[in-house]
Amino acid sequence: MASRSQVLVLEFAHHLPYTIVSSLIAMGAVWMWGSTQLPSPSAAGWTAQGQWSFHILHPLHVCLSAIATTSVFWRYERKLVKALLVGFFGTLIPCGFSDYIFPFIGGRLLGQGMALHICLVEHPMVILPFLLLGILGGLLFEERFAGSSVFSHAAHVFVSSLASLLYLVSFGFTGWLADTQLVFPVFLIIVIAVWIPCCLSDIAVPIGAAHDASHGRSRPVSRPAV
After folding, report:
1. DSSP string spanning 140-154?
2. In a domain? residue 196
3. Does residue 223 form part of some domain?
4. How confident is the model over 87-102, as pLDDT tens digits?
5. Structural domain harbouring 159
């Protein structure tokens, strides 16, 4: 049976290719959306529409992350209060790093005038209901549908890619849409912003917090058994 550390290493390795593909699809989707839907794809137009879209995708990301984090923990340890705490903090902190901290730092490192916008502080009543709904969903889904974290985890990766990218567009970094030299650096920012926090939230935090994780199922939590 795989040890806890072996499971984490395997999960991070397995997660990377899916993160790369999701990031590429997200970048293509955002570029096509702006190019075809905006009447005048100027920086101001990108920013306005990006902020609107970001404030939809970020709460959705939080909800999906909470489902995955809570359900993985609940698979290994059935303690309600602890599951609520793991779902709460194991979602909010990684999602914050994924959706605004890493994009903000990445944009600054590339010389962009990024603005730091923390939704949990500025719009708590937009974020918290989705967080609580996700925690409840994680408990119920894992109880009734074993391996529900597989599906929420997959959706989580793609939505996280879109949210991180839209933060860049919304708060100071639209230049990559017109300058091909910036496309690859932006791609790296998105991969890092999605890969590390999502693995921490969906895998490392719930498995690390669960007392019986080392005695649970050894198959990876981010893909179904065959």
Report:
1. HHHHHSTTHHHHHHH
2. yes
3. no
4. 999 999 999 999 999 9
5. 4-215
